[in-house]
Design brief:
Length: 301
């Protein structure tokens, strides 16, 4: 009987040891931490219900998870509008289920930022929900893109340049998205931080120029708008947008170090109103042609 009792004790204690080992293993996992995602999209207002949402991970923990899926979730046939904005779902997966897990939900789990290239179309990106599943190895995020209402409904004065005024749709535009590194002199949102006095726009004879400066290769100049807080500007090469949209707090910008070889160049610029951030129509400049040897000429000069 003593032998049988001892056997029973050993058998009964085995599951306890196994459970303890499992719990200890779980406690050694590392929290993924708060996720920071930059969202871009090409879904337009009053457009066919189609388009794509682009998501780029940011922050210092991107090696702990990956994007498994991104999709629009309200593309049931109605046109998108201010009252029916695009909604999307992002599924994140732990890079290693045995090593990392999502520890939080909701706004404490994720931060969504709007890509600089998307700010010409959307006012902001909103988080709807963030929920864990599959033993906390997945995080399903739902959000919506809010169209820029003020830009749609209010007329704002456009900067004057030598070129074509009005809203410009650049055919076949290929805009570099959120994951691209930002050139020196700008912050991560593309806002120009340089304070070079040579480009301050004061006391320069070329300030009378509205378009490409004929005396300085790659220098864009436009007329000030009284109500503007700042200006947004894109570089256009051979009819296609290149690089990031920059926010400029003066009426000129030096693209000379950002011209990728020979071709025809324009810039498009718009003003952003003080107080409510309403945006004007885009204005497209005249053409600057750069040759293989680096020489350049300005249309109309």
């Amino acid at each position: 009987m003593a032998f049988l009792f001892a056997t029973c004790v050993v058998v009964a204690s085995c599951p306890t040891v196994k459970v303890w080992a499992s719990e200890k293993s779980e406690s050694k996992k590392t929290k993924i931490g708060k996720v920071w995602l930059v969202v871009d999209a090409d879904v337009g207002i009053k457009a066919d219900v189609s388009g794509d949402v682009y998501v780029t991970p940011d922050g210092g923990n991107t090696d702990r998870y990956r994007i498994d899926d991104v999709q629009l979730v309200n593309d049931g046939g109605e046109e998108f509008s201010n009252t029916n904005p695009p909604e999307f779902e992002i599924t994140l997966v732990s890079q290693d289920e045995e090593e990392y897990y999502f520890a939080k939900t909701g706004s404490s789990a994720v931060r969504l930022d709007l890509a600089t290239t998307a700010k010409s179309k959307y006012d902001k990106v909103e988080l709807i929900s963030a929920k864990r599943q599959n033993d906390n190895s997945e995080l399903v995020i739902r959000g919506r893109l809010i169209f820029d209402k003020k830009a749609d409904t209010r007329k704002v004065n456009s900067p004057a340049v030598s070129g074509t005024a009005g809203t410009t749709e650049t055919t076949g535009a290929t805009v570099i998205g959120a994951g691209t590194s930002v050139e020196a002199g700008t912050d991560r949102t593309g806002t120009d931080q340089r304070t070079d006095s040579s480009n301050s726009g004061t006391g320069s004879n070329t300030e009378k120029v509205r378009g490409w400066d004929p005396s300085v290769k790659g220098r864009a100049v436009w007329a000030p708008v009284e109500s503007a807080k700042y200006y947004q500007i894109f570089l256009v090469k051979d009819g296609r947008e290149i690089g990031i949209m920059r926010s400029i707090y003066r009426t000129n910008y030096d693209f000379s170090e950002l011209l990728p070889g020979a071709g025809t160049y324009q810039f498009k610029v718009r003003s952003v109103r003080s107080g409510n951030n309403a945006k004007s129509d885009w204005v497209l400049s005249n053409v600057m042609t750069v040759q293989e040897d680096g020489s350049f000429s300005i249309q109309g000069q």
